[in-house]
Amino acid sequence: MGISRGSVYYLSKPVSECDLNIMRRLDKLHLKHPLMGARQLRDQLNRQGIPIGRKRVKILMTKMGIEAVYCKPHTSQKMPGHETYPYLLRGMTIHRANQVWALDISVPQQAA
Fold first, then answer.
1. How much is the pTM?
2. Is 58 exposed, middle or buried (0-12, 13-18, 19+ CB in 10 A)?
């Protein structure tokens, strides 16, 4: 049949109460400080009296679907084939209100 017995009889283990408590604290910390990664969250939990390692924090973060907010690499590289327009306000002295207006009409790219 092409199905292994292990996949048929596998029962996932329930999450322990200790892990649920840590995950609640991780969620609170992540909402308060979204820039913190696994290492900083580990340090915060250790300061709160919860002895935990970075790898365990990373595993729980992955389970919860959270990750630190940071600039990913290669986000500012231009796409080949996209036209680059000149900046028309360069060298212009703006000295009164409503002299110049700007509008961004670019369309965000869809995530693949």
1. 0.61
2. middle
